[in-house]
């Protein structure tokens, strides 16, 4: 049996912001590309995801999370994978 006293405390404060996210209830297919997606289809999907992010009250917190943990996939906080990578490189310079 696990020793409950050795378990970390409650951690919902680390993710509770997600409860207010504009993307709740929107399918993940809007934010994460299917294998092989390219060109206009990818651009359209990313723009649709960014439109949701633009209305989000926790957009900054979402982006902060994605940058801090190095989210490798999807649109987070209004930025694509490539845009987040560029932001991290720029910040490190």
From TrEMBL:
The Fe-S cluster can be nitrosylated by nitric oxide (NO). [4Fe-4S] cluster binds at residues 23, 53, 56, 62. The keyword Transcription applies. Residues 22-86 form the 4Fe-4S Wbl-type domain. Its cofactor is [4Fe-4S] cluster. It is found in: Cytoplasm. Keywords: 4Fe-4S, Cytoplasm, Disulfide bond, DNA-binding, Iron, Iron-sulfur, Metal-binding, Transcription, Transcription regulation. Coiled coil: none annotated. Binds 1 [4Fe-4S] cluster per subunit. Following nitrosylation of the [4Fe-4S] cluster binds 1 [4Fe-8(NO)] cluster per subunit. Belongs to the WhiB family. This is Transcriptional regulator WhiB.
């Amino acid at each position: 049996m696990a020793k409950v006293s050795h378990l970390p405390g409650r951690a919902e404060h680390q993710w509770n912001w997600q409860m207010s996210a504009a993307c709740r209830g929107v399918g993940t297919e809007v934010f994460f590309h299917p294998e092989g997606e390219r060109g206009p289809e990818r651009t359209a999907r990313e723009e649709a995801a960014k439109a949701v992010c633009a209305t989000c009250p926790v957009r900054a917190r979402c982006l902060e999370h994605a940058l801090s943990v190095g989210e490798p996939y999807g649109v987070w906080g209004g930025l694509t994978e490539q845009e987040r990578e560029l932001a991290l490189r720029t910040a490190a310079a």
